[in-house]
C-alpha cells in the first residue's frame, strides 16, 4: 500500500520475502525502490497520472513489467492497482504477482498450470494472513475488515466463501460479474451447487471413494472434502452461469479455521481460464501440425531416397555403357540406353511432380478452374499419350455414355485419369485389358478397371492416405502419393472416389462428380 505521493505505507510479509527487504527498509520509501532504475522516470509520470484519475485496473496492459529485489536481481511481474480513502487520504493498493515461472513455461503447455498455482497460492496466503489478523486484533476489526474488503473486491479473481454447512457468506464482485448473479441473489443461500456441473460432482465423488475409501453423499461435502483434510490443490471445473452458459475455471478451496483449529467455513478462489484453454488448444493444434509436417518430411526423405535410387542407378549405368559404345555399329545399343535414361528421367519427374502436388494441396495453393470441354476427346487424348507407357500387350478399352460436354477442371480431371490408368497398368500383368468408362452431364463419372493383383479389404481402408502402399506391392516402384492426390483433386471438385477390388481379380476405381451449373 502506498500514499498518493508514492511512499510505501504498508507491505505484507510475502512481499518482504519476495523482494528481500525488512519492513524498516521499505516503509516511507518511494515505490520506485522495487522497480528497475531504467523505468523510474516513466513510472513516476505514470504514478502521478494514476493519482489524478484513480480507478481499479491492471498495470501496464500489453507490456512486460519487471520488479527488482534488494540484491539487484530482476523478475517479471503482473500488477493490479486499486485505491481507497483512509481518514481523508488517498491510498493506492498494488497487488504484485511474480510471474517468472509462467514466463519460463510459455513454451511448454504442461507447465502453464505452474504460474496459475503460484498466483493462487500467493493470493490464498494473503487472505489467510488477513483472517489471522482478524483473530489477533479484534480492537482493529473495522480497519481490518475494510482492508479485507478492498482485497476481495479488487483481487482480480472470483472469491466465494461459505460457512461450514455451505451457506454462502461472501460473493465478491469478480464472482458476480463472471457468474451473472448479484450478491443479494446468492448470499445466505446454499447455491454453491448451482455453479457446478453435476457430472463433475459425480466424478469427484467417485475419486474420493477410490482415493480415500469414503462415501460422500452431500454434494457440497464432495467439493470441500479434500480441504477438510488440509489438501490444497488446483482443480478444473466447468462453472455454470445464471444464463446457463459455461466456462472453465481453476479453483482452489481452503478450509477456514478458528484459533482452536475448528473448521468454521470454506473459501474458494477461482479464475476463468477460458483464454488459457484456448491457447492450449491452439498450441496443441500447432504442435500436431508441426508433428505432421515433421512426419511428412521424414517419410519424404525415406521415400525419396528409396524411389530415386533405382532410376538414378539406371541413368548412371546407361551413361557408363554409352561411353563404352564408340563404334557406329553400336548405335542401336546406344539408343536403347538413351531410352532407358529418358524413361528414368520421366520417372523422377513424375515422383517430384507428386511431391510438389501434395505440397501445393497442403498449402491450399491449388485452385479449381472449371471449363467446358468434350470429355471423350480429352479421354481419347490421354489414352494416346499413355500407350507408350503401358506394359507389353496391354490395351485400353474406352466407352462413354451421356452428354459429351462437361463443366469441371480439365487439368485435374486429366491428372486423375492418368494416375488411375498408370496404376492399372503398373499393377496388372502383360497382355491385360484396362477398361475406361465415362459419363457426362448430368452425372459426370469416370471409372478405370483392371484385372490385376487387386487390393485387400484391410489395405482399402488406407488407400487415400499419404505414402500408403498396399502390402502386396512391395516390389513395385511407387511413392504412395498418387491415390492421395486423386482423392484430394476429386474432393476439390466436389467429387468422391470409390474403390471396388478383390485380391488376384482386379480393381475398379470410380470417381463421381457433383455438377455445378455454369
Care to describe what's here?
The chain is α+β, with helices and mostly antiparallel strands and 518 residues long. Helices cover 45% and strands 22% of the residues. The protein is built from 16 helices and 17 strands. Strands 1, 2, 3, 4 and 5 form a 5-stranded antiparallel β-sheet that branches. A 5-stranded antiparallel β-sheet has the order 7-6-10-9-8, sandwiched between helices. A 5-stranded mixed β-sheet has the order 12-14-15-17-16, with helices on one face. The two termini are 73 Å apart.
What's this, in brief?
By secondary structure, this protein is α+β, with helices and mostly antiparallel strands. Helix content is 45%, strand content 22%.
> Count the strands?
17
**Average pLDDT taken over every residue:** 81
Helix fraction, binned, reads: 40-55%
Task: Identify low-pLDDT runs.
Answer: none
SSE layout and pairing:
Blueprint: E1 2-3, H1 13-19, H2 23-26, H3 40-52, E2 57-59, E3 65-68, E4 74-86, E5 89-98, H4 100-105, H5 112-136, H6 141-154, E6 158-163, E7 168-171, H7 173-179, H8 183-186, H9 198-212, H10 219-228, E8 234-240, E9 246-257, E10 263-272, H11 274-324, H12 331-362, E11 371-374, H13 375-386, E12 395-401, E13 405-408, H14 410-426, E14 433-439, E15 444-449, H15 457-460, H16 482-492, E16 495-502, E17 506-513
Parallel strand pairs: 12-14
Antiparallel strand pairs: 1-5, 2-4, 3-4, 4-5, 6-7, 6-10, 8-9, 9-10, 11-13, 14-15, 15-17, 16-17
Helix pairs in contact: 5-6, 9-10, 11-12, 12-16, 13-14, 14-16
